């Protein structure tokens, strides 16, 4: 029986499904590229800002007396704004994810927001033709606005078109595309490629290139059958799209599942963001969704990337940029590992392993930093901690929060839930990006102890409160939250996973 089921699952992976997932993931690739592209040419862009503002003399930075380049305060302000405006744009646009996906469908939504990506890319690509600092900031703001929408629409679409047996693996491709985009930006941002004085506007402008390719491919991709049947009431079209996505097969089971989900959606009506926040019915899954996104950002992964270059320099690496690219390669490889494991080991298990492993790595890094001046070889301990930290992050805490939100909610509240979760992620990202330099200056070598404590708390929360969604239909997952809400007496301690999912035939 299990062999027959596996064969049926394999049949549901069609060429059209692969094309649809690849096309959607181009939006995530663009998101990753935009995240990473701004780092490599930092000094070159700061010099351009200085010349534009008239504060850079003799083609050199002001010196702070130690031989280290120290940009003018106005240059530093505009550079900080260039970096942070991306997250601010994402925070605001993430509230519009549900609206963009529901107005005319997921495909039309992704197609429409690509206009923003092209505009943002053009603004940055033409930065030398106007006030560079203004054009880069405007371009980054528009691109951030696009990425806030894309980071919600892509997991929503992939989660809705994926067969249940492959929903985790296909959902993880969102994160794989993000880290691939970061890696691509690191490689082509090298000085001898595009990360130089002449080519840096093209490097930034390429942020919009995946949107052009995606716009050509999206018309060939089927609309989400769930959207067509549940939201638009187009049963025949939904059935046709199911067959396009999964080949010729008996759609009875999938149509029955969507019918049941539609009946539940009718009972709960349309759920807005405010209704979702106020409703006690959705409080538990929403809290789980928030905590998973917070744990992704407050794990310290962005701080690790921020701090890695200086650690590589202390370790005697003559070209730390290549070591940073090495981190990007490991990032990509272990995301692939997650793709292969997520539908076998399960979401909850991989998150637990990842968070606990990262917690141990922050201790290793702290020891390495504290004794760095005493023992030269401790720098390699810190480097090992960085590489292992990235490995554990991409196994679970990196990719899983992006798609598990779509699994925790039925069709009615799903767009609003994804919008709120994305906003939570972007806001957390912005807070960490802005506050880490100050925290690091205050705590020094002990800065990662803060993340040790946070990661321990996130691990315990995941163990106690996060359900396993592997192999379950959307309705089964929603039913578990409903049953828990109605049956758990006040003051009862959090159930274990087996208690939480007791009675499910697919556990």
Summary, kept brief:
This protein has 507 residues and is an all-alpha fold.
How are the secondary structure elements laid out?
Elements: H1 2-11, H2 15-37, H3 42-53, H4 73-93, H5 97-103, H6 106-125, H7 132-161, H8 167-188, H9 200-205, H10 209-217, H11 225-231, H12 235-246, H13 252-268, H14 273-278, H15 283-297, H16 301-314, H17 320-345, H18 347-370, H19 378-395, H20 400-408, H21 414-443, H22 448-465, H23 474-487, H24 497-500
Helix pairs in contact: 2-7, 2-8, 2-10, 3-4, 4-7, 4-21, 5-6, 5-7, 5-21, 6-7, 6-10, 7-8, 7-20, 7-21, 8-17, 8-20, 11-12, 11-13, 15-20, 15-21, 15-22, 16-17, 16-19, 17-18, 17-19, 18-19, 18-22, 20-21
How would you describe what is shown here?
- The chain has 507 residues and is mainly α.
- It has two domains: 195 residues, Up-down Bundle (Growth Hormone, Chain: A), CATH 1.20.1250; 212 residues, Growth Hormone, Chain: A.
- 74% of the residues lie in helices and 0% in strands.
- Helix 15 packs antiparallel against helix 20.
- The protein is globular.
- It starts with a helix and ends in a 7-residue tail after the last helix.
């Amino acid at each position: 029986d299990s062999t027959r089921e596996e064969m049926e699952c394999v049949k549901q992976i069609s060429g059209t499904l692969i094309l649809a997932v690849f096309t959607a993931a181009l939006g995530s690739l663009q998101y990753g590229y935009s995240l990473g592209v701004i780092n490599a040419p930092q000094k070159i862009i700061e010099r351009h800002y200085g010349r534009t503002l008239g504060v850079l003399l003799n083609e050199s930075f002001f010196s702070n007396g130690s031989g280290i380049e120290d940009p003018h305060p106005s240059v530093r302000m505009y550079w900080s704004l260039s970096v942070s405006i991306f997250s601010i744009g994402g925070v605001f646009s993430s509230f519009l994810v549900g609206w963009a996906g529901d107005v005319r469908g997921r495909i039309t939504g992704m197609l429409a927001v690509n206009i923003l990506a092209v505009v943002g890319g053009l603004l940055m690509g033409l930065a030398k033709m106007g006030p560079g600092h203004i054009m880069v900031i405007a371009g980054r703001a528009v691109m951030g606005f696009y990425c806030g929408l894309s980071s919600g629409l892509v997991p929503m679409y992939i989660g809705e078109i994926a067969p249940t047996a492959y929903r985790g693996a296909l959902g993880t491709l969102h994160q794989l595309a993000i880290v691939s985009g970061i890696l691509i930006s690191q490689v082509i941002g090298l000085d001898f490629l595009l990360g130089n004085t002449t080519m840096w506007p093209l490097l930034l402008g390429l942020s919009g290139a995946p949107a052009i390719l995606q716009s050509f491919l999206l018309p060939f991709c089927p609309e989400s059958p769930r959207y067509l049947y549940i939201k638009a009431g187009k049963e025949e079209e939904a059935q046709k799209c199911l067959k396009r996505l999964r080949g010729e097969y008996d759609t009875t089971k999938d149509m029955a599942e969507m019918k049941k989900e539609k009946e539940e959606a009718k009972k709960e009506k349309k759920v807005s963001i405010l209704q979702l926040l106020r409703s006690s019915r959705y409080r538990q899954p929403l809290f789980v969704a928030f905590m998973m996104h917070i744990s992704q950002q407050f794990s310290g992964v962005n701080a690790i990337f921020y701090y890695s270059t200086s650690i590589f320099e202390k370790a005697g690496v003559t070209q730390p940029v290549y070591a940073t690219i090495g981190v990007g390669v490991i990032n990509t490889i272990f995301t692939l590992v997650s793709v292969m494991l997520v539908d076998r080991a399960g979401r909850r298990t991989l998150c637990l392993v990842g968070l606990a492993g990262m917690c141990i790595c922050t201790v290793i890094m702290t020891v390495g930093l504290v004794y760095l001046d005493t023992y030269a070889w401790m720098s390699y301990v810190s480097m090992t901690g960085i590489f292992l930290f990235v490995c554990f992050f991409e196994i679970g805490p990196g990719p899983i929060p992006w798609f598990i939100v779509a699994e925790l909610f039925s069709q009615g509240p799903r767009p609003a839930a994804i919008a709120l979760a994305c906003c939570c992620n972007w806001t957390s990202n912005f807070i960490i990006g802005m506050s880490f330099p100050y925290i690091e200056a205050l705590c020094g070598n002990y800065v990662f102890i803060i993340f040790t404590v946070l990661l321990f708390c996130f691990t315990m929360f995941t163990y106690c409160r996060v359900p396993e969604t592997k192999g379950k239909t959307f309705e089964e997952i929603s039913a578990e939250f409903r049953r828990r809400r109605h049956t758990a007496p006040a003051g009862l301690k959090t159930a274990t996973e087996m208690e939480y999912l007791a009675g499910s035939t697919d556990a």
